Amino acid sequence: MAKRKRQKLNKKLILPLVALAGLLAALVFTLYLDSVVRERFEGKRWELPARVYARPLELYPGLKLTPAQMISELSMLGYREMPEPREPGTFRLRGQVLELVSRPFVFGDGPQPSVSLGIRFANGQVQELVERAKNSALGLVRLEPILIGGIYPGKNEDRVLVKFEEVPQHLIDALIAVEDRRFYSHHGIDPKGIARALFATASGSVQGGSTLTQQLAKNFFLTPKRTIRRKLTEMLMALLIELHYSKEEILEAYINEVYLGQDGNRAIHGFGLASSYFFDKPLTYLGLADTALLAGMLKGPSFYNPRSQPQRALERRNLVLAIMAREGFISAQQFALNKSAPLGVIDRPPRGTSPHPAFLGLVHRQLQRDYRDADLRSEGLQIFTTLDPQVQLAAERALTAQLAQLEQSYKQPPDSLQAAILVTSTQNAEVQAVVGARDPRSKGFNRALDARRPIGSLVKPVVYLTALQQPHSYTLATMVDDTPLVYAQSGTTDWTPENYDHQFHGQVMLRDGLIHSYNVSTARLGLEVGVAKVLANLRRLGVERKVPEFASSLLGANEFSPLEVTQVYQTLAGGGFRTPLRAIREVLTAEGISLQRYPLNIEQVVDPAPLFLLTKTMQDVVREGTARRLGNYLPADLEIAGKTGTSDGFRDSWFAGFTGDRLGVVWIGRDDNESSGLTGASGAMTIWGRMMASLDLTPLLVPEGGNIERVWIDQASGLRSAADCPGAIALPFIAGSAPEQAVPCARDSDKKSHKTWFERIFGR
Amino acid sequence: MKRIERWLACAMILVLAGCASLQPVATEPPPPPRNEAVIALLDVSRSQSSAGKLDMAGASLERALRIEPQNPELWQELARVRLQQRQYREAENFAAKANILAGTDMHLRAENWRIIGQARTSLGDYQGAQAAFEHAEGE
């Protein structure tokens, strides 16, 4: 009896116990789900990549800018041409007048509202700026900057996270119209939707019935299993998500999470990446038709893939547009206009998420000095850089076109040559363009920063500067010996430098050694002033690491990266003031508060007078020396200063040169270090010329300062001559350093015998 | 400040008078061109300066320098901002840069030397400061 009773009692107890255990299990499971949801959500939300912007375009009357250049700038900003520009991000061009509505933007110096602008062009310049609303003239307008990339969380390099504010309203409208009409009213699950889905399933067609929140929950699991249990878990998760987060936060997470396609073994998650993958544009810049296409693809990313199934994708897009019109999100007119728009998908997906990875590489490197990598990848910092998109495109185009042509002309295997380019502004050392590979979009080896190669004759200006800094010993007219040289050093084989033309040129004026890039006279001069002194000067000009000292350092045996070369030439182009190359102007927080400015700083490291002599001679290199064929690309009145460089066996072809406003350094070579078949002049200089020819340039006028005088010099002897004598030129000297001894004015016949006399004495 | 404003006004008048059409002499850089945007940014920079927002004043001058990189007056103004920021070495360097670009403009050069003198004084280089002030007198 007692036994029975106990059994009965047990039976009575079991049910509640089981129920309690079940409840507990459910509670634990819910808590577990809750932690999963929050973890996934918080992780996603706070991992905002740093966003990197190009320089903003400053418009002002007098700016050299053509309507075509302006349109190219606007298309990079994702502006759309409209019959009547009213919305921010639209424009219209009529002849020489461009009307646009800029987007509001927060700069480091404060927010800048949207402005409706009229720009009148004339003669390749901005003639007038008018604020259309007030019909008043403006002196200066700054457009919002182009977004050029991001610094992404390392583990999923390929996710382009977007903030809710950046999401075009059309996309949100499309998602709600097509996927979840009651999104703003339900609490994560939508009974009406489920009923509809059940009914539809029963009647044969398949419908989702999942809310956006449920779809998001589903995406948090890796396996897309379709079981009742999974479905219930998903609904529970959806409720939990709605409990914790606002509708905006849920939409933001959804937009960053959903699966939209496959690129080989890389999954395209999130609309940010999809936008870059299909349109090569940031999501913010997508128009109505584009966003409708992407939203439509959610139903079946491979079935509606616009690249492989363009017709199907187009129909799906137009269906989305039709639903949007039916639901009142867009007008009938918008529907009509957009349903006839082309797909607009680019043929081949871009390699990476930034069009300019080499420049981004430089930015990242400079940021790493001041920021933890984790912060760069997650704090949503806004990085304002110095990239000038016009210059960058000019560099990329010149490089791509010219390399193919050079390979053909010089019988090099196709795709064998590699190249790197840096362009900076001469006065403030801002880096305007960086190309690190022949395919400017490839993310691999950044030769502009990391390829260290012998610089050949690019070092010569430093040798000559070192000499000219001793005006009592060396002037441009000092005679230097260009006859065979044997330099013996214990422990190594003798060094016997040769000239490029395998000739010796006898006694030459110092300036000729640089103009014609004579190796032998340069080596002799360098040995006289001292290798250590030359290399010390190189460091003063901007090389930061210690490099080994050889006699052959005088002819550029040391290896430097194009970036290091640019830093050295920057000091020459900047009038003897060393300025660290800058790729970043300012860093703002995600909220637009200035974290750090990178102000311009300069340090005078070279006296103006010897630098004046050097720069004048580098202008002569272009006028009459090894770089004279630059005249095929650019007019003489730009007075460009430059230097060619070729390393042993034609392995490296270099050119460095500057105008009044821009410095460019170009390198060409092969990754396997084989011969490129090119000299500095036949290779790198042609890219330089082609690139600079497509840019607006300011002539180089070298400020002379007070202590320079001009003296007529007989070129054969380097001595004073009367003005305008045959074979005489007027050369600049640091006051008091010109030769005192004079030669009589030589008539043409005398001149000739004079030269042979020299040749007799000093060899050929 | 006053001097610059005066200089600015003079330059404006000269530009209006057609001075800009003068051919540059080969050995001297041409007088700096005048640009409304630059003048506006100079104004902005000065009001930022007097509001104590020296970082921003510097940033505005850098914007102006991107438009007219060879304008010695902008470099001098930057020197002045650095002086206020107590970055004396920087001030000296900017004034030196302005000097090289100033050509034959005695007033501008004299002012540059005075800035250099002040910077050196603050750095404790009294001899150097003395030399700079003498330069300023000599201009």
Summarize the structure.
The complex is a heterodimer of chains A (764) and B (139). Chain A is an alpha+beta fold. In chain A, helix 5 packs across helix 6 and helix 10 packs antiparallel against helix 11.
Chain-wise SSE layout:
The complex is a heterodimer of chains A (764) and B (139).
Chain A: H1 2-46, E1 50-53, E2 58-59, H2 67-76, E3 80-81, E4 90-94, E5 97-101, E6 105-107, E7 110-112, E8 116-122, E9 125-131, E10 136-137, E11 141-142, E12 147-151, H3 169-179, H4 191-202, H5 212-220, H6 228-244, H7 247-257, E13 259-263, E14 266-269, H8 271-279, H9 288-297, H10 310-326, H11 332-339, H12 357-368, H13 373-378, E15 382-385, H14 389-409, E16 418-425, E17 431-435, H15 447-450, E18 453-454, H16 460-468, E19 479-482, E20 506-509, H17 510-515, H18 519-529, H19 531-541, E21 559-560, H20 562-573, E22 577-578, E23 584-588, E24 594-597, E25 603-604, H21 608-624, E26 641-646, E27 652-658, E28 662-669, H22 684-693, E29 708-714, E30 719-720, E31 728-734, H23 748-762
Parallel strand pairs in A: 1-15, 3-4
Antiparallel strand pairs in A: 1-12, 2-11, 4-5, 5-8, 6-7, 8-9, 9-10, 13-14, 15-23, 16-17, 16-28, 18-21, 19-20, 22-25, 23-24, 26-27, 27-28, 29-30, 29-31
Helix pairs in contact in A: 1-6, 3-9, 3-10, 5-6, 5-7, 9-10, 10-11, 14-22, 16-18, 16-19, 16-21
Chain B: H1 2-16, H2 36-50, H3 54-67, H4 72-84, H5 88-101, H6 106-123, H7 126-138
Helix pairs in contact in B: 2-3, 3-4, 4-5, 4-6, 5-6, 6-7
